Amino acid sequence: MRTTANHPLLDLPPLTPERFASIERGVAELLGTRADVVVTQGEALLPLEGCIRSGARPGSTALNVVTGPYGTTFGNWLRDCGAEVVDLAVPFDTAVSAEQVAEALAARPEIDFVSLVHAEAATGNTNPVAEIGEAVRAHGALFMLDAVASVGAEPLLPDAWGVDLCVIGAQKAMGGPAGVSAVSVSERAWERFAANPAAPRRSYLSLLDWKERWIDGGRKALLHAPAQLEMLALEACLERITTEGLPALMRRHTAAATATRAGAAALAGLAPYVGDVRAAAPVATTLRVDAGLDASALVAKALAGAPGAPLVAGGGALATSMIRVNHYGPDASLAAVLASLTALAGALATPSEEALATATAAWESALTA
Predict the structure, then answer these.
(1) Same fold for the domain at 17-243 and the one at 246-368?
(2) Residue 327: which of 350, 298, 359 has the closest Cα?
(3) Structural domain boundaries of the chain?
């Protein structure tokens, strides 16, 4: 009889509750949080929607900050829950300010929920969460933060910043899997969820199920069979970050962003999409193409010559005008930055030497700053 050989990705021992809990602790250490952490078994949209459907309900009023496409999604979910939504939208090539948030809160004292994206990889901006958190805390609203693109790339301090719900995913700066995510939940958030009769129960979206059956039960019995490969990959990802050191990981992302921005400025036909470098995210750099050029066509041409370059055209209405360089995770490297610039120079039919030299100098300067 023919036997099947063991396969390292298939023939795995069960993931025990103890190991699952240890991975949760690793996420909590990464976030520097003392709040409960729930590792959710899906892409980060799962806990993001779960947070909104648990925290919003008819009669509540939410301030939804829109600095990119995910803010639009959050607003739709909030409205689906019956909440009145106040959208604070700013141009996608900038960041929202704490003053704008404070003014919006002052104008509507009844606001009890605030949703914000930390860094928008799709548009290349990042928002000043520490200052915004002060305004939200003074107002007393529950604060939900999408930190999927920022975790590992820039400082993220949910406890110090007054973030009640901090959602992360491992697939960007952390260099991990896309199919698992996590959320830290403050005591205030748990109380809000428990008081909401519309909060999901007996549902894949239910965070309260995890609270009552997993956390309050002493983390002894998992709710369902865990996504084992993704959990093991998340564990390996956390171990790799510990080995490199979080400060070093963030420096690497800052250096990649600095080098990309500097090198692209030396290429004819391109300019930073986010004008103010203080509002530019370290996880990805977005570039505006000159009038008469088509971003999608340029990216296609660049990738034809360099298939592995981390380049993508903007989404939706930005498809013809914006290029995104995704220098996160393993691609937060000088080699990936230089490969992207070389590919773009080839697509633009412009010399690359000055851009590559400028990028290299900026990378080295950023790493030693």
Answers:
(1) no
(2) 359
(3) 17-243, 246-368
CATH number of 246-368: 3.90.1150.10
Is the model's pLDDT at 188 over the cut of 90? yes
**Cα gap 367→369, rounded to integer Å:** 6
E strands present in the chain: 36-40, 61-66, 84-89, 111-117, 119-120, 125-126, 142-146, 165-169, 181-185, 270-272, 285-289, 311-313, 322-325
CA distance linking residue 49 with residue 167, whole number of Å: 10
Q: What's the token pair of residue 175?
A: 């260099």
pLDDT one-digit tens code per residue, 99-123: 999 999 999 999 999 999 999 999 9
Q: In sequence order, what DSSP letters do the residues of 94-137 get, joined into one string?
A: S---HHHHHHHHHH-TTEEEEEEESEETTTTEE--HHHHHHHHH
Q: Which residues contact 163 (CB under 8 A, 6 or more apart)?
A: 129, 133, 143, 144, 145, 184, 186
Domain 17-243 indexed as CATH 3.30.420.40: no
CB 209 within 8 A of CB 202: yes
pTM score over 0.85: yes
The two structure tokens encoding residue 44: 């980060």
Distance in angstroms (rounded) separating the CA atoms of residues 143 and 85:
14
Structure tokens at 21: 């809990």
